[in-house]
Amino acid sequence: MNEFFQPISGLETPRFAGLSTFMRLPYVPPGHEHWSELDFGYVGVPWDGGTTNRPGARHGPRQVRDSSAMIRSVHPIRRRSPYADCNCADLGDVPVNPADLDDSLKRVEAFYRKLSRDGIVPVTAGGDHLITLPILRGLVQEPVGMIQFDSHTDLYRGYFGGYRYTHGTPFRRAVEEGLLDPRRTVQIGLRGSMYDTEDIDFGRSQGVRMVMVEELMERSVPDVMEEARTIVGTAPIYVSFDIDFVDPAYAPGTGTPEIGGPTSFQALQAVRGLAGTNVVGADMVEVSPPFDPSGGTALIGATVMFELLCAMTVGKEPP
Amino acid sequence: MNEFFQPISGLETPRFAGLSTFMRLPYVPPGHEHWSELDFGYVGVPWDGGTTNRPGARHGPRQVRDSSAMIRSVHPIRRRSPYADCNCADLGDVPVNPADLDDSLKRVEAFYRKLSRDGIVPVTAGGDHLITLPILRGLVQEPVGMIQFDSHTDLYRGYFGGYRYTHGTPFRRAVEEGLLDPRRTVQIGLRGSMYDTEDIDFGRSQGVRMVMVEELMERSVPDVMEEARTIVGTAPIYVSFDIDFVDPAYAPGTGTPEIGGPTSFQALQAVRGLAGTNVVGADMVEVSPPFDPSGGTALIGATVMFELLCAMTVGKEPP
Amino acid sequence: MNEFFQPISGLETPRFAGLSTFMRLPYVPPGHEHWSELDFGYVGVPWDGGTTNRPGARHGPRQVRDSSAMIRSVHPIRRRSPYADCNCADLGDVPVNPADLDDSLKRVEAFYRKLSRDGIVPVTAGGDHLITLPILRGLVQEPVGMIQFDSHTDLYRGYFGGYRYTHGTPFRRAVEEGLLDPRRTVQIGLRGSMYDTEDIDFGRSQGVRMVMVEELMERSVPDVMEEARTIVGTAPIYVSFDIDFVDPAYAPGTGTPEIGGPTSFQALQAVRGLAGTNVVGADMVEVSPPFDPSGGTALIGATVMFELLCAMTVGKEPP
Amino acid sequence: MNEFFQPISGLETPRFAGLSTFMRLPYVPPGHEHWSELDFGYVGVPWDGGTTNRPGARHGPRQVRDSSAMIRSVHPIRRRSPYADCNCADLGDVPVNPADLDDSLKRVEAFYRKLSRDGIVPVTAGGDHLITLPILRGLVQEPVGMIQFDSHTDLYRGYFGGYRYTHGTPFRRAVEEGLLDPRRTVQIGLRGSMYDTEDIDFGRSQGVRMVMVEELMERSVPDVMEEARTIVGTAPIYVSFDIDFVDPAYAPGTGTPEIGGPTSFQALQAVRGLAGTNVVGADMVEVSPPFDPSGGTALIGATVMFELLCAMTVGKEPP
Amino acid sequence: MNEFFQPISGLETPRFAGLSTFMRLPYVPPGHEHWSELDFGYVGVPWDGGTTNRPGARHGPRQVRDSSAMIRSVHPIRRRSPYADCNCADLGDVPVNPADLDDSLKRVEAFYRKLSRDGIVPVTAGGDHLITLPILRGLVQEPVGMIQFDSHTDLYRGYFGGYRYTHGTPFRRAVEEGLLDPRRTVQIGLRGSMYDTEDIDFGRSQGVRMVMVEELMERSVPDVMEEARTIVGTAPIYVSFDIDFVDPAYAPGTGTPEIGGPTSFQALQAVRGLAGTNVVGADMVEVSPPFDPSGGTALIGATVMFELLCAMTVGKEPP
Amino acid sequence: MNEFFQPISGLETPRFAGLSTFMRLPYVPPGHEHWSELDFGYVGVPWDGGTTNRPGARHGPRQVRDSSAMIRSVHPIRRRSPYADCNCADLGDVPVNPADLDDSLKRVEAFYRKLSRDGIVPVTAGGDHLITLPILRGLVQEPVGMIQFDSHTDLYRGYFGGYRYTHGTPFRRAVEEGLLDPRRTVQIGLRGSMYDTEDIDFGRSQGVRMVMVEELMERSVPDVMEEARTIVGTAPIYVSFDIDFVDPAYAPGTGTPEIGGPTSFQALQAVRGLAGTNVVGADMVEVSPPFDPSGGTALIGATVMFELLCAMTVGKEPP
């Protein structure tokens, strides 16, 4: 266990004291002397330029850092700290550009390309869901599988007269660009009224497995996750967790809430069901603090990010 | 499909742009040139003069309109738009009188009598639950059945020394006035501490079927809805959805919340379970924006109103 | 039925009128002429000096009193008022000292010692969880069993360099002081990341039965409560309900929320599952109004306090 | 100094502890053994049935009581406690009827008639502004003068087709009923857009002195108050303080806010300028907690009520 | 007085009833049968793609419409309705594109070009301050003067490495493009810490008159407005009112608040000081509802829009 | 100008990106390689164990850091950056102990003793006002003068039966301990109801100059500050700014608000009036985020901290 990479304990220093970093880990931005020792890194992408409705996800990383002071280091079921086994830190935020969509996509891609080259596996806090596209561009050399927790497919063709880059289109683009292997892609928690069925039709034609929330509720989360693990197998996958997967009673702070979703307990079950897969990167996106008076959404986001890391590090078998 | 009666799509015009109407449908108030083409209509009754505790439901219709910009036109399970099959619009608000209870009841009754005569089936946003009484007076010529989703029976005799018209009494009055057939009336989701058992005793003596939330949770929503459909049969029914049916974690913005209620997922199951019945009118009441810091209650209300319309239009068999 | 000890009815006086007391019961502080007639008493302990993270539980009793105006007198399942069978009142708040931890612990102990001597069974509103320690000191002559609903064990050894009295340590102290019998102690709902496993190890070594939330969800609340009743038997127990037992979507207003918890429906099931046990005192702690924009947490707290009283009075068999 | 009538000191018992009464004074409702010793009384009228726009003033008295725990007993300028010179208490709330406007007006009138007979001078917390009408009916035998702090004249003829009793009409009615002497009536702080000039024309024709906020700001509050004192002289007057007199940045929690108003400092200057007049009753109305996220409006309301009492008791000369 | 163009009165229909339009005026979008009769129009531009910090101004028009239900038709000082003298309506929102900055600028420009051609003078609700640039492009054929109420100059050269279009740069661009005559431009209320002095230096070199808030407070608003009127003379001017001109205690709901600003009373004085100038268009921008828990910012925005119209219509001499 | 000690510019990196430090300055905790180069330092003391009423100031430093991202580096009047002339950084938080008052006082004292020895002048964010006592203990070798902006004297003898250490007593203790020279101590902005006159009497007897808010408003802030500078002269002084100096409309997020206070504009005038004095340390205390729904209080706090630094560095003559 590397002492440098341990989080500050709330038993020693109160959680409300000190600078906010993800999980109270050390801050190790690119260029830091400990950069080369990193195995994993929490990253923020404070950008919401792809948002078609309610903005605010640009403020997500900061609030998730604040809330993550609540997260202690030992996992309640595994009874073990992920930081005992690997070196992880807060890598800071990608320096995005709120005044230009294209420039921001390039900046994000470059940051993740560097991570990929340096062998650091990222767990990202968004930002809106469009950020997953440049993350994949930077991270992936050949098509990866994906498990996506979301109430929307984000497979739309375009908005507002053919505009191709919004938070409703990243995975359409990712499939088109050969970043994702649609036959090893599973979308879980889909629900809510739809513009039309164009996104669903596209996904189906490509072989994406789509699990509507009704199926999820009827079969149970562990059962669906077992199927998902079978579909993605042991080849590399990316995991994308849109906070609107969770019901808005739990996570009101998001831009496009859809009622009738899973509980936070089910969200934890879902992420824990990733154990045994081969995750090369993960994100948790769409936390929008201005729409969350009590801050509970960011707490779910922080907990999910911790669980994502645990799923990737502590074991390789489902719990 | 009548082009005039289609909602504005969020793929074309952002959801936050333009005037707020229910579901972004056209505004067709009485006297409008398209009035005679209407099959269904969303109506607001911004009135809370029957409220015995926390007021604010008078502001419900406006916030539900705002939130309904989130609702797209295609149902996620049926994969079909209700607006493809029938003409529906926002009929505006009934011009109620906050300074006089009796006058308001008369204004509401008159509005719905006109709808009844013109063959328009209403889906109403309240307002407090007392509004269902004048709606029934205007809408119904002979006793109808009812499926009521609610945490309270609203069957009390009177308040504050015998005052007969409050949001705790509408269905006592409706039974007394011959508007409701109690033997074809089902109340689902009842819970919470009670003043006494006078309302329950009355309902039982009249033959009302009362499903406490404990029974609902144990048997499951689809199972209870199957029984409800059997009880009401195929004769005309009215559907009344009090937002306090849903647990206050999901719907805090209401005047008389009761903990221990169903989730929004269960609420959707419940409304979808209406398919196959013969609904002559429906309402969603008691959304009180001042008690809802994040606005999630109105989003549930708007979604429920959309599902009510779908249940009444898209098919006649349970899903 | 003693008329003096009946709550004010919302059918007679609106719930928002009049002074706020617990459940709108009469206010009977020590020294009151009716003191000697009391069987039970609701008490407030407005103190949060043991809080290691977000404070505010000192404001809990006042907000719970306000919210308790929503609670009527008749239990929805038993269809009976607990106040018909016994004399209960609002005993006021213990006069604590926010400027001194030790002095406050002594003041609380003294208050409960008097209750114990006068044969009044308390249902307390906290305050943070450290208050349970002086309550037990005042109330208990020999070790009692305990059923604790909580997301944390509160069995830690100390904080911030060995400080022994915080809301994370009361039950470690209570076991050490011989106030609790650990083999008749059941902790239900445990979850969330941990500093280490020191608290769990201590509890296990002492024979405490710990039910993690995952077990609770899988087995169901009634099933776990049946086991709990078996463990504690019919000898005296204390019941401690930390509001963070409930998921923060339901109860955001608390200092140390942990996601993935039970619903308010499950909370009611849990408290109702106490029927048949021999409860000599109960509390509901950690409601922190400043972190609860919509006030729903206090409503759960008030309802739980009512259910606790019902579980202790109306019957002795599980429902 | 009568010990019984002293408020609880925050130096002894923390302000957040104990039951909420106005200014932490003893609770002395009608029938109480100390009733006959009272000189003054704080009263709540939790009623908003006259509200034409945003409701919620029915919750005003409770929140003002809570906030009044902030108010200590000694006036900062006079350096003296009003409770040293006279007996004052919290008389509780008038038991109004939210389901009936006429019945409520009668209940309020009867309560104040009793106060008048028993020689108790009331300082009232509303409730909406219509409550001043029945207060005057109960309190006054012959026309009194009035100093009214308000952004509206409340002199309108009627609403919604001739309805005569709303919070926009009380002083029209009071003049018509001979309760107010319009030539000894001063309205201060008027502003905001108007329906028409009918109210202004009526007031002018009756001799009411109306001070628009522009004049108030230009001349200064003490200067205007000097004129007001000259107009009302030493004969009996009533004082009515609508919280919307204060700018909504200071007092957002009200039903009909008008921007461009005085500060809370100016509000204190205004009330202190009453010293030397002959006040037979006073109220502070229109605090609506649901529209006040931070509770500051109620704190202004509580402070104003304290200053009203001081203006009436501690001295008879302007400061 | 044209009956069609009169707002709905709150004396007839409660303010919370009916669809939300600016000032409750009729909705007359382009193509409407009454379009050609319009003299003035309230327009919404729901776009915040130029925002460098906290977003949300895209939601401004909707909330300003809602709040504008508070505004009655008669001006409190002039005692006259602006709608008696001219035809004004709600023209709806410009259909902007949240996914593309350039496309949005073009859409806004086109809308205002049409207004200019059709002789309709716009009073616009933003949106962020970048929208004023395309408004000017559409509205203006030769350089106009400007009176700008703002805490920032918005004269910066660029952001984030030379990006030229943000809400911090519109007037730099407008001067460069020959839309504004800098020597007839007055900026009032400037304050707050600065990145550097580049914007100030540019403005000064061009002849812009900049009134810091310190000068405004010392000299008084009417005195500064008199100077401003002298500077701009009687040739055409545009008026731009950034809501962050007002102190954030009054207007917290904005993206870049600066403390130490004017009151809402001073804001009204400022707008009223425009009377006598030759205004060819006006806007009120930067209201961001997600940062305004009590909604007071939008009420100021709505009142300012009403006062802007009055200043442009009711008279031509300063008050 | 030392490049290392420059804040991150919002023109380069958006304000919402990156870790939160005071004013976006580098984080230089004790032991950091650049520590010895420091002239000034922003410090947090996240502790509220001296609070007698509403807690939460422990969360102040974190929220002030977040809000301080709004503060740019150049002062609007001086047109110069304080960071151009001296080295300043964020020194982090003092590691306090929420479970023990005495231990916390010692930890704070030790931290400031180190600063004093190392020649670093601190600008501190509290925390409640009791923290000023250990700051003075650590910082001061002989009695210093003080200018205190506050609505309370904080000169009380004790609370709750003689407890000597609360946020109402620090300056009584500081005078008793010889840390403060009362004859060179000026308290500005005092107001609000009082427990008694014991604190005022003590202060007067010691020679403290107390300026009530009424005097401040009548004379103007610059005039009072001129007197204050004369009283303290050029010998060392400490400056303590309690955020409750500002009116609660501006700064609601504090534990003990008093209405009728100065505006934020007047607060800036006050701090700027310090120029020319010899300040050896300063603090800004009592920001309590849980009571501040819109976050404006922390923005005032951050701005005041920036102005304090400017007053201490950029010039030595009043503006």
Automatic annotation (TrEMBL), chains A, B, C, D, E, F:
Keywords: Hydrolase, Manganese, Metal-binding. The keyword Magnesium does not apply. One of its GO terms (molecular function) is agmatinase activity. GO terms for biological process: putrescine biosynthetic process from arginine, via agmatine. Its EC number is 3.5.3.11. Binds 2 manganese ions per subunit. Its cofactor is Mn(2+). It is an enzyme of class 3 (hydrolase). The keyword Metal-binding applies. Mn(2+) binds at residues 129, 150, 152, 154, 242, 244. Belongs to the arginase family. Agmatinase subfamily. This is Agmatinase. It comes from Caldilineaceae bacterium SB0662_bin_9.
